[in-house]
Amino acid sequence: MSSPIEINERQYPGIPSSTAIVICLDGSQKEYFEEASKLNLTPNIDSFKKNGEDLLVNSAIPSFTNPNNISIVTGRPSSVHGICGNFFYTPSTGEEVMMNDPQFLRAPTIFQKYYEQGAKIAIVTAKDKLRKLLSHGLKFNESRAICFSSEKSDQANLSENGIEDVNKWLGMEVPNVYSQGLSEFVMAAGVKILNEFNPDIMYLSTTDFIQHKYAPGDEVANTFYAMFDRYIGQLNVNNNSIIVTADHGMQPKSRSDGSPNAIFLQDILDETLGKNISKVILPITDPYVVHHGALGSFATVYLSDKSKINDAIEEINKIEDIEVVLTNKEGCAQYDLPTDRMGDIICMSSQNSTIGSAEKAHDLSKLKEPLRSHGGLHEREVPFISNKKINLNDANIKLNNYDAFYHAISGAM
Ligand SMILES: [Zn+2]
């Protein structure tokens, strides 16, 4: 056993003797597991819950994919690592900057720190947008690291990913980016990597395509969780420690007629404060908007005239279905956000509503099913399921999903 490793002000155990596995099952509101379990579709997860741990923990706010994946792999919230959405806005230039590049990362990952101590690391992610952030600090020329995405598995090569000919090796073609196959690919690759590469630490991160489209208990959702459970059985070997958690939950966000339940905040602020005073930023926006139309439950607002902040807060407070309205300072303190990458106002909507910018800015034509989305407080609580008992020193402290690696590694010592 190597000596303890300090990462982002937390003391982690040394390199584990078996494999520490964390799985971020994107968009897994706890009811997905509960419904699949009722039909006995998830025997492996059920046995983890019975013999290990079955906890509910907080994800980082905003309850979006990138901030939470990066929280999980750094062990800290966005205020420390800086990734608080898919992009941030620069008021001085009017530029919207994508945050999928490592230059925006303000903290080292757990992978980097373990790698520097000689550990073997394996990472598979569904969408390629996360790959560069997750693999930052790893070297791929020493045969100790693998990191690739199912989306671009055909482009994986030894110098950038530590693996090549992935599709032939796995016997699976590149899945469609909007399919459950993208996540199944991650799980199948995880099992094969475990058997052939035997990593010390492994991270598998899926995509929430299924969860955006289908409610818990839907046949398609149940089939997805049954598939997931079969792979879990194959990972649960030797003395491996496995923690299954999620980046965020998922709630229905449509009206009774099936249309998306959205508050078009930019339109409201343009009308009440005047045009060109405010800029509504939705950090959920990314190139893959088909399944949510860029509608989530979190928004931040920049004001060109700072003397209007209180007026804007007053107007937003009048909107039914917006539950949280805070200044930058209050919101960043309360939800561990980086002040310089958030606007003057931070707001979140209710369980069944979303916040949009201007109505005309959203292309909702590709939304086929009633909207399901995330981003706010109602999608914050996520499952945290472990195949081992966790030593919870202080039972009064609610864990975060970003405590996953600490406990997974501790369980694999
Ligand atoms: Zn997600």
Shape: globular
CATH class of the largest domain: Alpha Beta
CATH architecture of the largest domain: 3-Layer(aba) Sandwich
Extract low-pLDDT stretches.
none
**The CATH superfamily title of the largest domain:** Alkaline Phosphatase, subunit A
Q: Strand fraction band? A: 15-25%
Bound molecules: zinc ion
Number of discrete helical segments: 15
In total, the number of strands is 19
Distance between the first and last residues' Cα? 8 Å
Helix content: 25-40%
CATH topology of the largest domain: Alkaline Phosphatase, subunit A
> How many domains is the backbone divided into?
2
Strand adjacency order, main sheet: 4-19-10-3-9-7-8
Largest sheet: 7 strands, mixed
In short:
By secondary structure, the chain is of the alpha/beta class. The protein has two domains: 5-249 and 380-411, 3-Layer(aba) Sandwich (Alkaline Phosphatase, subunit A); 262-373, Domain 2, Phosphonoacetate Hydrolase (Gyrase A, domain 2). It has helices at residues 30-38, 43-51, 65-74, 78-81, 110-116, 131-134, 158-161, 166-170, 181-197, 209-213, 219-235, 265-273, 309-317, 328-335, 404-411, and strands spanning 5-7, 10-12, 20-24, 53-58, 87-90, 95-98, 121-125, 145-149, 201-205, 241-245, 251-252, 262-264, 278-281, 298-303, 322-327, 345-349, 354-356, 372-373, 381-386.
